[in-house]
């Protein structure tokens, strides 16, 4: 599965990274708590979130995430988009709620990012 | 004690959510330039980001330091207060005294200190109410 497949499945707008849509993706996580994402995500995965502040980008930078999907049609600011472009991220904007977006991605075959061993089960995934 | 192969200091300001994370991003770039493994780079920079956010949210300001030696990386933070009254509670996942502004940024969920400890090979925290808090996280390179 590629990021392009995810974008098609969600009917999402591609905000940044049109030339990077053919990267393969194997997992995703879904959270508004960046601390949870930092705690539990160990893969270069996709982050689905409703937050559109710079700390989503910082988290993506720290974890080398590939793709951000903003739920419920939320649009990040221009500064964020420019920074995301510099980082080489793909940024999508899903018209669906976070729950429905996650459901559609799961239905398409995407699974939750693996947690490190010993981590609590209240995962961000 | 011998001088560190690399020793970088970053001032951290209380409440500066705009710049919060810049020090950690620089730490990650520095480790990448040094050729540190991807897994180690992730562990150190996640710990640094959590520590940096903790200082921005809770402290009155302070400094974060990165020291890289031949066999380990040491990350330390030292702030000027207000200190932590109950370290045992602060170390428990889910315990938080963060305000709404921090929570609106996706932090303040009570994961910071446990997350730093989880990523480090050795972890120490010293704090007194009314005084500063010092955190040291060591990562062994092997």
Would you write up a description of this structure?
The complex is a heterodimer of chains A (125) and B (142). Chain A has 125 residues and is of the alpha/beta class. Chain A contains 5 helices and 6 strands. A 6-stranded mixed beta sheet of chain A has the order 1-5-4-3-2-6, with helices on both faces. In chain A, α2 links the parallel β2 and β3. The longest helix of chain A has 10 residues. Chain B has 142 residues and is an alpha+beta fold. Chain B is built from 5 helices and 5 strands; from the N terminus they run βααββαααββ. In chain B, β4 and β5 form a beta hairpin. Chain B is globular. Chains A and B meet through α2 and α3 of A and α1, α2 and α5 of B.
Secondary structure layout:
The complex is a heterodimer of chains A (125) and B (142).
Chain A lengths: L2 H8 L2 E4 L10 E4 L3 H7 L5 E4 L4 H10 L3 E4 L7 H10 L2 E4 L4 H10 L3 E2 L13
Chain B lengths: L5 E7 L9 H12 L4 H21 L3 E7 L3 E8 L7 H4 L9 H5 L7 H8 L2 E6 L5 E8 L2
Antiparallel strand pairs in B: 1-2, 2-3, 3-5, 4-5
Helix pairs in contact in B: 1-2, 2-5
Tell me briefly what this model is.
The complex is a heterodimer of chains A (125) and B (142). Chain A is of the alpha/beta class. Chain A has five helices and six strands.
Provide the β-strand percentage band of chain B: 25-35%
Spatial sequence of strands, sheet with the most strands of chain A: 1-5-4-3-2-6
**Total count of helical runs of at least 4 residues of chain B:** 5
Strand percentage of chain A, roughly? Answer: 15-25%
How many domain regions of chain A? 1
**Largest interface by Cβ-Cβ < 8 Å:** A-B, 24 and 26 residues
* Assigned CATH superfamily of chain A: HprK N-terminal domain-like
- Per CATH, the class of chain B reads Alpha Beta
Remind me, CATH topology of chain A? Udp-n-acetylmuramoylalanyl-d-glutamate--2,6- Diaminopimelate Ligase, Chain: A, domain 1
Backbone structural class of chain B: alpha+beta
